[in-house]
Amino acid sequence: MWRYQGPKPALLAVVCAAACSGAVYAQETLPEVHVGMGMPKPPYIMESGTAGLDYDIAKQALAAGGYKMVAHMLPQTRALAMLRSGQLDGMLSITEGIGGDDYFTDNYVVYQNVATSLARRNLKINQIEDLAAYSVAAFQNASMVLGDRYSLVASGHADYRELPAQITQNKLLFMGRVDVVVGDRLIFNYYIDKLEPQIDVKQAVMFHRIFPETPRKAVFRDARVRDAFNAGLKAIRSNSKYDAIVKQYIGTTP
Q: What is the pLDDT of residues 210-235, one digit of tens each?
C-alpha cells in the first residue's frame, strides 16, 4: 500500500505550452495520481489491470495534463470509501450519481448496455418490459444499476438470473439455454472469441438498444487534477491518440 501524500498540482500553463511545442515528458518525471478503477471488464479494463479502453484513455489524458496515473484495481464500493477517506486521489469510470463534493471530469468513455438475442429467433424487444416474455441472463447487480423499470421486470421474472462472469452469458446464449442476455455490447463482443471451440459463435446476434448510453467520468479530490484531466482529454481527442486507443480495442473509431 502506498503512503498517501495528496496530489501534487500540475502547472497547466507550462504543460500546455510544452504540448504545443511538441515536447515529450517521461512518465516517471510526472507527479503521481492514485486512482481506483473497477475489477476487470474487458475491453474496458483488461485482466492485467494495466491496459484497456477505459484505462488507456484515462492514463493518456492525465499524462497529457501533466500527471502519471497509478491505478488500483478495486471493487467500486471499496474504491469509493478510500476516495472519501483520502486514501485515493480519484476514481475512474463513474457517474455523478455517487455524489460527494469532489470534482468530476468531462465524459471520457461511453458504456452501452443492450439486450442481446440470436438473430434467427427474431425476438421482439423494443422496450425493457418486453424482457418479461423471455428467459434472461444479466450481469451481476444489473437489477440495481439499470433503473427502476428494469428492476421491476427482474423482480417479478420467473426465469431471470444474474451472473458474476459475463463470459457465461455468451455461452448460455450461443448454446440456446437462454433467450436474452443483458450487458455491455463491447464486453459481449470481447468474450465471443474466448468461448470453447465447440460452441458456434458464428451465429448472428441482434443488439436491442433498450437502455440509454451511459457516459462515464473520472472524479478527483483536487480541482487542479480534474482540470488537467479535461485539458489532456481535449488534447488527445484533437491529436488522434483517443481514436487510436479506441481502434486498438474495438477496431473502429467513435
A: 999 999 999 999 999 999 999 999 99
Report d(CA 218, CA 106) in Å as an integer.
8
Residue 76's nearest CA partner among 106, 113, 44, 107 is 44
Residues counted in the chain: 254
CA-CA distance, 12 to 92, in Å (whole number)?
21
User: Considering only CA atoms, which of 35, 16, 76 is closest in space to residue 228?
Assistant: 16
Record the pTM: 0.81
CA-based diameter of the chain, in Å? 62
Helices 185-192 and 241-250: crossing angle in degrees, nearest 10, is: 50
What count of other Cβ atoms lies within 10 Å of the Cβ of residue 29?
7
pLDDT above 50 for 15: no
The structural domains of the chain, with segments of one domain joined by +, span 12-110+216-250, 113-208
Architecture category of domain 113-208 in CATH:
3-Layer(aba) Sandwich (3.40)
Annotation: CATH topology of 12-110+216-250:
D-Maltodextrin-Binding Protein; domain 2 (3.40.190)
Under 8 Å between Cβ of 217 and 108: yes
Give Cα 64 to chain centroid, integer Å: 20
